[in-house]
Write a structure and sequence with these properties.
Number of helices: 9
Order of helices and strands: EHEHHEEHEHEHEEHEHEH
Shape: globular
Number of strands: 10
Number of domains: 1
Distance between the termini: 10 Å
Bound molecules: zinc ion
CATH superfamily: Histone deacetylase domain
Radius of gyration: 17 Å
Low-confidence stretches: none
Strand order of the largest sheet: 2-1-5-10-9-6-7-8
Structural class: alpha/beta
Mean pLDDT: 98
CATH architecture: 3-Layer(aba) Sandwich
Helix content: 25-40%
Length: about 300
């Protein structure tokens, strides 16, 4: 069985007409759960609200105030050129973070060691004091800090295979020796970071535009997975962005859904080796709706294997 955490509020965050980070993305992800192969094997869980204190694990008070400020019906609040809040965004943000923290609680309790958070908005670009790149707050960085503080996990790894570099995750976790940030991403591409790590605890593998399965798997097999293995984390957190898929409109890599099956299997194997199987994944990017369904299916299928 696999826990999938989600909440209807995550579909109500609406950055506006034509915005690629649309509510339809969540519907595309949830469509994958309807596949007959998952019948009776997935437990859908309602994501709880995270507290303001949880957000403060990774963010400045000024950012938290701005993101949670009420937005009147019919209005939008623009936090940066492409990060926009609507009336229900604050709840969507708190449910997205709450899903991660609840999944970690379950994984550490041993009841459900693997979980996927089917939530939005994404988070890995948000820095301590700056929302950016569709990301109001950084759920995965909050989750890493939470695992280290609330659960006294000795080492936590954040694995990010979104096509964009998770600049916010790397920056927030910089200087934290109990955390390791690993990312493969297209370069050059938004946000322009990730060519060199900014801290000893980050490893970045850059993929030139046009790279496909072979370059992606080689980067993980030869560079990033050995680092993860050597770090021996007690918990693996996954920033699961599916925008390196060949159909994605925002980037130029050429992955297939099977590549997400492959990387997920590799990560689950390392979680079994070092972390008693504990692996919690959260949706980041992915802007082709058909690819989102297909990649989510591959990701979950891999998580359901022993
Ligand atoms: Zn992305």
């Amino acid at each position: 069985m696999l826990s999938v955490w989600t909440h209807p509020a995550c579909a109500l965050h609406d950055p506006g007409p034509g915005h690629p980070e649309s509510p339809k993305r969540l519907a595309a992800v949830l469509t994958a759960l309807e596949m007959p192969e998952f019948a009776g094997r997935i437990v859908l869980r309602a994501a709880p609200l995270a507290s303001r204190e949880a957000l403060a694990l990774a963010h400045a008070p000024e950012l938290i105030e701005r993101v949670l400020e009420p937005v009147p019906t019919g209005f939008r609040l623009r936090l940066d050129p492409d990060t926009v809040l609507s009336e229900h965004s604050a709840e969507a943000v708190l449910r997205t973070v709450g899903a991660l923290l609840a999944a970690i609680d379950e994984a550490l309790a041993g009841s459900q060691r693997r979980a996927f958070c089917a939530t939005r908005p994404p988070g890995h670009h948000a820095t301590r004091d700056r929302p950016m790149g569709f990301c109001p707050v950084n759920g995965i960085a909050i989750a890493a800090r939470y695992a280290l503080s609330a659960h006294a996990i000795e080492r936590v790894a954040v694995v990010d295979f979104d096509v964009h570099h998770g600049n916010g995750s790397e920056a927030i976790l910089a200087g934290e020796p109990r955390a390791l940030y690993l990312s493969s991403h297209q370069w050059p591409l938004y946000p322009g970071t990730g060519l060199e790590p900014r801290s000893d605890n980050a490893r970045n593998a850059v993929l030139p535009p046009g790279s496909g399965s072979e370059a992606f798997r080689t980067a993980w097999r030869e560079l990033l997975l050995p680092e993860l293995d050597a770090f021996a984390p007690g918990l693996i957190l996954v920033s699961a962005g599916f925008d390196a898929h060949r159909l994605d409109p925002l980037a130029d890599l050429r992955l297939e859904a099977d590549d997400y099956f492959w990387i997920t299997r590799e990560l689950c194997a390392l979680a079994v080796r070092h972390a008693e199987g504990r692996l919690v994944s959260t949706l980041e990017g992915g802007y082709s709706l058909s690819a989102l369904t297909e990649c989510t299916r591959a990701h979950l299928r891999a998580m359901l294997m022993d």
